[in-house]
Amino acid sequence: MQTSHENTMIASEKEPGLHFYLSREPLILALLSALAVVSFLGISGLSRVYHAQQQSLGNRWFTRGAADLKARRFEFAVNEFRTALLYSRDNYDYQLNLAEALIALKRTNEAYAYLINLWEREPENGRVNVELARIAVQRGETEQALRYYHDAIYAIWPADQEVERRDARLELIEYLLSIRAKTQAQAELIALAENLADDPSQHARVGDLFVQAQDYEHALAEYHLSLKLDRHNLEALAGAGRAAFELGRYELAQRYLEAAVAANPNDGQCAALLKTTELVLKTDPFRRQISVDQRHRIVIEAFAAAGERLKSCSAVGNSRGTNSSASSQENLADNWAKMKPQITEQGLRRNPDLVEAAMNLVFDIERRTNAACGPPTGIDMALLLISRLHEGN
Q1: pLDDT digits (tens, 9 = 90+) for 230-247
Q2: pLDDT by residue (tens digit) across 59-108?
Q3: Distances (CA, A) of 311 to 57, 161, 223
Q4: How far apart (Å, rounded) are the C-alpha atoms in residues 259 and 11?
Q5: Which residues are CB-neighbours of 93 under 8 A, at least 6 positions away?
Q6: 56 or 192, which is more confident?
């Protein structure tokens, strides 16, 4: 059993160790804190290295995918974008490019799942809206397609991607033309034309689209702007000739078409249109600045051509066994036969009013035979166009 003296001695022996610990506690705490900080910094550094490595690998696979997407190797691109997403699952650009590759492979359901998620994150993203519009087009969802295209046009695009906004409107216009929504296409084209750069090829392309929308007045204006910037632009010359032809401005059409054929003699379409234009100008008896004798000769030739057209059309109708317009053609034939003895140079000089009466009958024959026997050729086509030119006069 320990005595009080012994207890006192033991306590006195312990006091120096406790005192030593207490005197060095701040140093120990500082060392432990430093060790904790070093460990934290080490772990943070390792984490940053890991994430940087993950990002580098993701970017590497994404770059490969982008190259294959551009080269239209879509299967490879899909696999590469999926691999990139393993390293950065929420990366917006990776998902968007993957969706584009899937659309190219017609795997629209998979693409749609990515795109609708991206749209919910950024509904104002132009590229996402364009891709959603394309999917809606493939699915035949017209209202959805139009909504997404319009959202794309008025979306937020980076300053260096304004061309993408214009291309989105062009794509919308082509879609509207494909579904025969010509009035809507014309409105979009007018909006597009107001914001075109001074690029002759752009104006010529918009002119072509106006032609497809059958808005020949605006088409001619766009071709004219293109030619102001580049008077040798072959597409604009040919387009302007066609637009002027459709508007019935045959003298203007002749100038443009002559220039187009001279620049490209192998352009058979322009050459054929030029031939018809020249026939119209040659065969129109109501043109100004032609002599009376020349007008009479034109009327005689036109009257004879209409008679031949009526005869050949009647023969076609009889061979087909159709009687739908037989009585109408018989009336025209009777009227033509009654008037024929008077359609001579002497008869036309004696009765100037016969010029208009003869041409009215010619125009009537050409319209009726066009409806009954299909489009004419040569001088008959020219006479049909002249009839439209003077319709209502």
Answers
A1: 999 999 999 999 999 999
A2: 888 889 989 888 989 999 989 988 988 888 888 888 999 999 998 898 98
A3: 80, 63, 42
A4: 120
A5: 62
A6: 192
Distance of CA 71 to the CA centre of its chain: 22
* Residue 339 token pair: 């008037």
Please name the helix (run of DSSP H) or strand (run of DSSP E) that holds residue 106, with its range, or none: none
Under the banding of pLDDT at 50, 70 and 90, the label for residue 367 is very high
Q: How far is CA 80 from CA 97, 131, 231, in A?
A: 10, 20, 47
Residue 73: φ, ψ to 5°: -95, 75
Distance of CA 349 to the CA centre of its chain: 56
DSSP secondary structure, 48-94, as one string? HHHHHHHHHHHHHHHHHHHHHHHTT-HHHHHHHHHHHHHH-TT-HHH
> What confidence category does residue 39 fall into, taking pLDDT thresholds of 50, 70 and 90?
low
Half-sphere exposure of 193 (CA within 13 A, CB side): 24
Neighbours of 300 (CB within 10 A): 17
User: Under the phi-then-psi rule, with left for phi > 0, alpha for psi from -120 to 50, and beta for the rest, what region is 336?
Assistant: alpha
The number of angstroms, rounded, from the C-alpha of 52 to the middle of its chain's C-alpha atoms is 42
Question: Which two three-digit tokens encode residue 341?
Answer: 């003895």
The identity of residue 30, as a single letter, is A
Alpha-carbon distance of 296 to 146, in angstroms, equals 57
CA distance linking residue 257 with residue 280, whole number of Å? 14
Instruction: Tell me the DSSP string of 256-322.
Output: HHHHHHHH-TT-HHHHHHHHHHHHHHHH-TT-SS--HHHHHHHHHHHHHHHHHHHHHHHHHHHHHT-
Residue at token pair 């050409």 = 366
Question: pLDDT tens across 124-161, in order?
Answer: 899 999 999 999 998 899 999 999 999 999 888 877 77
Element (H, E) at 123: none
How many beta carbons lie within 10 A of that of residue 262, not counting itself?
11
- 310/306 Cα distance (integer angstroms): 6
105 vs 109: CA distance, rounded Å? 11
R_g of the chain, CA atoms, integer Å: 41
Structure tokens at 281: 């100008």
234 exposure class (CB count in 10 Å sphere: 0-12, 13-18, 19+): middle
Residue 378 zone, left/alpha/beta (φ > 0; ψ -120 to 50; rest):
left
